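Side project, low priority. Logging it here so it doesn't get lost.
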Amino acid sequence: ALPIYFKTTFQDKLLLKMPEREEDHLTAATRLLEKRREMNEVEQALNAHKEEFQMKMESLQQRREELERKEYQLKSSLLKFDKFLKENDSKRARALKKATAEQEQRRAKTREIETLTKKTEQLTSQ
């Protein structure tokens, strides 16, 4: 019981109550300076975020331009390839037409040769 008595007595008499908030003892000028310091910190953070955002936007713009350039190159390649395919098809069609015409000419010549050969045989057999 004695230790509890001393403990409560000394706590009540020796311990000073500290203010619950430090701001209660600050002057208006000190509080103003503190608020300005806080405002500067916030502004610095905001400026850092703005700068970071600007850098990201520039990076995105560069990527967009690069993608547009690659898209243009791809379209150009596609158009060239399409032109190549059309020319190739056209050449193939001409070659087939020419081959068909030559085959028909060869058949006609073969028939003519056969006809002439028969006439020659008939004339020589008379």
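Brief comment: Helices lie at 2-14, 28-125.
Revisit when time allows.
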